[in-house]
Amino acid sequence: MAIDYKASTINDLTQLYRSGEATPSQVLEAYIKRIERDEARVGAFITTTFDEAREIAHRLDKRLADAPETIDWDKETLFGVPVALKDNMCTQGVKTTCASKILGDFRPPYDGTAPGRLRAHGAVFVGKTNLDEFAMGSSCENSAFMRTTNPHNADYVPGGSSGGSAASVAADFAVAALGSDTGGSIRQPASFCGVVGMKPTYGLVSRYGLVAFASSLDQIGPFTRTAYDAALVLAAMCGQKDPRDSTSLEDPFGKTFNKRGFAALDQGFVKAMQAKTGQEIYKGARVGVFKELMGQGNDPQVDKAVSASIERMRELGATITEVSLPNAKYALAVYYILATAEASANLARFDGVRYGLRDPKAKDLLNMYLETRHEGFGPEVKRRIMLGTYALSSGYYDAYYKKAQQVRRLIASDFERVFAECDFLVSPTSPIPPFKFDEKTGDPLTMYLADVATIPANLAGIPGISLPCGTTDNDLPIGLQMLGPQLSDAHLLQYAHGLQQSAD
Ligand code: GLN
């Protein structure tokens, strides 16, 4: 029987390579075989890149066989690890569609910084994953091309917008995947698919080569099976200022930004974390329960699973207090003004001239713009562009956009205040477990409500993780969200690791 490396972690693979028990090509072939077997059911990928992956794996095989001394395992932390990328991240010569007809044939001439850094650490890219068009949505149902199903039950959505990336890890099509999170698009699908998903501190990972949705909120982050693997992937991407993204942080863990003594998320920290027990990590930890996100309208099964995790933290030595963030209730409204306003500006570039689709029949320039955008964008993207244009238009700017910016500041202050008293906050990632296809498509507002727990972190720029914490009666995953102060990414991952370590 062929070994299929199911549910492998990055660590497992590294051990296999170092001990000579497997080669990157053997592992890759096992993953490709599984993708070929199950992809018709799951539908994670818009594009697979098996040829390129085979070439790269072959090169790694050769190094492993002929020149193992050239491999620095402390630096090439993703050596031979199959990775999937959300299809809104530019990859040189490989289609990058954003699940939109307007970019249906777009092949970027360059790699984005984050994919490039993973490549430099030895990752092997197996494909580009499905998403809601331009990352706008919570179920992957807004993709112009295909449906992704939840690997746990194909009647249910995988969440969104990074549903394909979450599903690719849950279905064992990849050991890790990258997604982007503007209002929850990593954490919510991670929760729905039963994997770990993290949105780092804003600015920690370069956005260069990520097709912009809302630039002040967008952040790239990992999907993995374990918090430890998430730390490995994030450590490979973060930490250096990228001159191509002016919002990427200069010396993020150095003196300028880090006044609160957070450790750098580097390989040293990640390695040390592996040896720690749950008790060691949680001893003296101050955990805040995000009051506004518990109870009140949540599915009771979600609250029950989250409460059990909180209990576990207490057993491990944490002190638990309930904390209130009174302005959080405005987060959803603020987000749907700011995100749409930024999207309306960002998406102006898709005009039929510079990228992708163009309507060749239009009789003049204006009509070419109009027809191209009419043809190329789906209904949700059009809705967002209209909402955003309205919020920015003269006469409404002060009432909507400016007001929303002010409330955003208040939400960030709420977090600053509670983080003076606790190390991190917990809540459900999503108030509801995975839902069925077409259950919410008729009413955009109920779809938007699915993001109520994840959006505050984007508005405040703080890191957030979703961790599997149980299942519903019908075996669908439930996610626990952990939120930490800005630049506490390493510590937050360590708390997540401690909990995972000590779980059954
Ligand atoms: N679901 C949210 C939205 O539709 C968040 C999307 C995201 O984070 N990209 O905007």
The secondary-structure class comes to alpha/beta
Q: Work out the strand percent.
A: 5-15%
Major β-sheet profile = 11 strands, mixed
Number of domains: 1
CATH superfamily: Amidase signature (AS) domain
What series of H and E elements makes up the topology? HHEHEHEHEHEEHHHEHEHHHHEHHEEH
Q: Count the E strands.
A: 11
Instruction: Name the poorly predicted regions.
Output: none
Across the major sheet, the strand order is: 1-3-2-4-6-5-10-11-9-7-8
Bound molecules: glutamine
Query: What's the gyration radius in Å?
Result: 22 Å
State the helical fraction: 25-40%
- Please identify the top-level CATH class: Alpha Beta
Quaternary arrangement of the chains shown? single chain
Feature tags:
single chain; 504 residues; alpha/beta; Amidase signature (AS) enzymes; 11-stranded mixed sheet; 39% helix
What does the model show?
The protein has 504 residues and is α/β, with parallel strands linked by helices. The chain has one domain: Amidase signature (AS) domain (Amidase signature (AS) enzymes). The chain is 39% helix and 12% strand. It has 17 helices and eleven strands. An eleven-stranded mixed beta sheet has the order 1-3-2-4-6-5-10-11-9-7-8, with helices on both faces. Strand 2, helix 4 and strand 3 (124-129) form a beta-alpha-beta unit. Helix 11 crosses helix 13. The protein is globular, with a radius of gyration of 22 Å. The model has no long low-confidence stretch (mean pLDDT 95).
